[in-house]
Amino acid sequence: MRSGFKFTDHTADVEFIAQGSSIEDTFKNAFMALFDTLSYTKKVAVQKSKTEKFMIREKAQDLERLLWYVLQDAVSIMDSKALYGYKINRIKISGKGNLYHFSGEISAKGQNRKNAKLDVKGVSLYNLKISKKGSNFAANVVMDV
Questions:
Q1: How many CB atoms lie within 10 A of CB 121?
Q2: Is the overall model pTM greater than 0.85, yes or no?
Q3: Quick check: 2 pLDDT over 70?
Q4: Residue 83 class from Cβ within 10 Å (0-12 exposed, 13-18 middle, 19+ buried)?
Q5: What does DSSP assign to residue 10?
Q6: Any idea where the domains of the chain sit in the sequence?
Q7: N or C: which terminus of the chain carries fewer CB neighbours within 10 A?
C-alpha cells in the first residue's frame, strides 16, 4: 500500500482503501486518495501557482457519514473553485455521544489541465465502511467518476 491507501478493482468507478494507525491518519489518507484520483498530486504541489487553503468542518452521527460529508465537501469546493488539493493539515476529529466533529485544512492550487487525471463527480455511500483491526483503522470508499 503506497502512502496509506491503495486502489482496488471496481467495474465502473474508483474504489480505494485508506488505512492509518489513528482515525485522523485514515481520514488524511482518504483525502490523499481523493486528491490522487483527481490529479498528479506531486506535480500540483510543485507547480508555481499560488497555494490556496480552505477549511472543511462537518459533523455527523457516525464516522462513515462524517467521512462521506468531508470528502463530498472537498469535491464540491475544489470543483467550484477550479482547484486541485495536494495536502491536508490540522485534522481534528472528536466525538461526544452520538456526534462526531471534523475539521481540517486543505492546501490546493489552481487546476492545470496537464495535471488532470479523472473527474470525480462525488463520493458514493455504496460500500462505504470504516473498520478497526487491532490498533489500525481502514476506510473503504467508492467515488463516482
A1: 12
A2: yes
A3: no
A4: buried
A5: -
A6: 5-144
A7: N
Classify residue 99 by its DSSP letter.
E
Per-residue pLDDT tens digits for 86-135 = 999 999 999 988 899 999 999 999 999 999 999 999 999 989 999 998 99
- H/E/C letters for each residue in 34-51? HHHHHECHHHHHHCCCCC
The one-letter amino acid at 43: K
Classify domain 5-144 at the CATH topology level.
Answer: Archease, Possible Chaperone; Chain: A; domain 1 (3.55.10)
Instruction: Cell 486528491: give the residue.
Output: 35
Rounded to a whole number of angstroms, the distance between the first and last alpha carbons of the chain is: 22
Written as nine digits, the cell of 4 is 496509506
d(CA 5, CA 21): 12
**What are the C-alpha distances in Å from 72 to residues 6, 49, 64, 75, 113?**
19, 25, 12, 5, 22
> Is the Cβ–Cβ distance between 38 and 85 less than 8 Å?
yes
